[in-house]
């Protein structure tokens, strides 16, 4: 008998086995769907998506820009980056500089973005709210972003509790991003998926 005790599992079972349905989200299928759309890249389906690993702020920002359909614009951006901890040699420098120039990120402090630090659920939830054109300071506040996700009807309280428990991992980023595609843009009323 095989028992899986993690939120995501990528494995092969040989021999006789019995499967039973689960009420838990299928993070692997969500990752594969996002991969097929070109939104979630990395290790890939053949070698695994590394869903149990933590997500850095730079990785999360890139995912956020892909969900918005802005990756090509970010890669073409030639403006300067105001964050001293994201030098030109950093792989995500153009993404970070572009996002800051568009008001999509303010960083973590004066002249800092902290690209290689782990992102939190609150930070990624804030990205999601911005992606759906909720106005920061009016529709939501950074300090209450998780509660605002619930009050705005985007997630349930149980979901935000689960997503924010412990270290924020790649499978949680996949879940939020996948669900975001079915959220309505507050300016146009169109689903975010339709903007891609």
SSE inventory with pairings:
Elements: H1 27-36, H2 57-67, H3 71-76, H4 93-101, H5 121-131, H6 145-151, H7 157-164, H8 170-180
Class based on secondary structure composition and strand pairing:
mainly alpha
End-to-end distance, in Å? 42 Å
Order of helices and strands: HHHHHHHH
Compute the CA-based radius of gyration.
Answer: 17 Å
Percent of residues in helices comes to 25-40%
Largest sheet: number of strands, sense, barrel closure: none
The strand count comes to 0
β-sheet strand percentage: under 5%
Unreliable stretches? none
Q: Mean pLDDT, rounded to whole units? A: 87
Principal-axis shape equals globular
> How many individual helices?
8
Notes on the structure:
The protein has 196 residues and is mainly α. The protein is 37% helix and 0% strand. Helix 1 (27-36) packs across helix 8 (170-180). The termini are far apart. The mean pLDDT is 87.
Q: Quick summary of this structure?
A:
The chain is an all-alpha fold.
Features:
196 residues; mainly alpha
């Amino acid at each position: 008998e095989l028992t899986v005790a993690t939120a995501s599992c990528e494995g092969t079972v040989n021999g006789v086995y019995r499967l039973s349905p689960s009420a838990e989200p299928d993070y692997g299928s969500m990752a594969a769907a996002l991969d097929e759309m070109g939104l979630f890249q990395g290790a890939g389906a053949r070698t695994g998506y590394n869903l149990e690993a933590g997500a850095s702020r730079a990785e999360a920002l890139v995912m956020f820009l892909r969900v918005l359909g802005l990756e090509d614009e970010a890669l073409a951006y030639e403006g300067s980056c105001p964050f001293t901890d994201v030098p030109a040699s950093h792989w995500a420098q153009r993404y970070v500089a572009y996002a800051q120039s568009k008001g999509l990120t303010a960083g973590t402090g004066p002249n800092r973005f902290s690209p290689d630090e782990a992102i939190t659920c609150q930070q990624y939830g804030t990205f999601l709210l911005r992606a759906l054109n909720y106005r920061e300071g009016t529709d939501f506040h950074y300090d209450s972003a998780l509660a605002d996700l619930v009050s705005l009807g985007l997630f349930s309280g149980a979901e935000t509790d689960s997503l924010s428990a412990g270290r924020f991992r790649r499978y949680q980023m996949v879940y939020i991003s996948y669900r975001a595609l079915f959220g309505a843009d507050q300016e146009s009323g169109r689903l975010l998926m339709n903007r891609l």
